Amino acid sequence: MRAALIDPAATGHLAVTAVDDPVPAPNEALVQVKAVSLNLGEVRRARREPTGTHLGWDLAGVVQKAAVDGTGPAAGSRIVGIKPAGSWGDHAAVETRMMAVLPDTVTFAAAAALPVAGLTALYALEQGGQLLGRRVLVTGASGGVGLFAIQLAKLSGATVTALIRREAQEQLVRDAGADHVVCGERATGAAGHGPYHCILDSVGGEVLADSLSLVGRGGVLVNFGVSAGETATIDVRDFFRVGRARLYGLYLFTEFGRRSACDGLSVLAELVGAGRLDPHIAAEGPFDEIGLLAERLFNREISGKAIVHID
């Protein structure tokens, strides 16, 4: 089959080449992949992992062979799924607990946008508990996770403030449902709309430090990224004096021990099928252009999701 492997000499450090077909484990289904999405974390990994590494988390497609242990969807089922690696190819072996059946109204492209970005937003917001009437801050709000988070928080009844870096992104986050938009390299400008019951941070660095001072009593800051920096200097006294405030580190694949990917993907797919959640696909292309899309995503030329069609 064809697969996109790391090649430092290729555009986006990715080259489509021939590899052996996957051999599913008993708890895995063999999926004919129809679409995948690219995430910033993956395209960054393509620049530091060894040559020949097969990347890819998100996928949508059709079950060719059901899992031999009897779990999961039957052959012919349209599914969305997630893997620790190896989705960027014609076929993928996917654990049945890491996939969900798609409603007929959800396209493969829309489904492929859901796993990493959608599940991260969903599981991060769950740390805030009841959000009805609460204030939520989303940093890095114009990215894939951010746009899902805005929509899901609004569906939960929250008032949402979006933090973005460039003014050109303001209409994008307002269209997603943001009530307030703050533009800048720091989060201090969001103080006027706080304090916040739940803050979702994908930026790290100074933004994380700023955001900790904006958490309200009994609130939580959920961090799942460091796009601006891995080191943050915080005022610990200001944080603990708020009372019952939490800092929660979210790494998606460990969250599946708390709530399965199957459950979360089913929720997201149903919302998309009902027209209540928009994946915000910003760029699409065929499989042989995966490197070009990866390069554009790495250079921050894409806000929202980048989808690769595999045909």
Structural commentary:
With 311 residues, the chain is of the alpha/beta class. The chain folds into two domains: 166 residues, Quinone Oxidoreductase, Chain A, domain 1, CATH 3.90.180; 122 residues, 3-Layer(aba) Sandwich (Rossmann fold), CATH 3.40.50.720. 26% of the residues lie in helices and 28% in strands. It has ten helices and 15 strands. Strands 3, 4, 5, 6, 7, 14 and 15 form a seven-stranded mixed sheet that branches. The chain has a six-stranded parallel sheet with strand order 10-9-8-11-12-13, with helices on both faces. It has a two-stranded antiparallel ribbon with strand order 1-2. Helix 10 links the parallel strand 14 and strand 15. Helix 3 packs across helix 4 and helix 3 crosses helix 9. The chain is globular, with a radius of gyration of 19 Å.
CATH architecture of the largest domain: Alpha-Beta Complex
Give the helices and strands as they follow along the chain: EEEHEEEEHHEHEHEEHEHEHHEHE
Structural class: alpha/beta
**CATH superfamily caption of the largest domain:** Medium-chain alcohol dehydrogenases, catalytic domain
Distance between the termini: 12 Å
Shape: globular
Described by strand count, sense and barrel closure, the largest sheet is: 7 strands, mixed
As a whole number of angstroms, the C-alpha radius of gyration is: 19 Å
The CATH topology of the largest domain is what?
Answer: Quinone Oxidoreductase, Chain A, domain 1
**Count of alpha and pi helical runs:** 10
CATH class of the largest domain: Alpha Beta
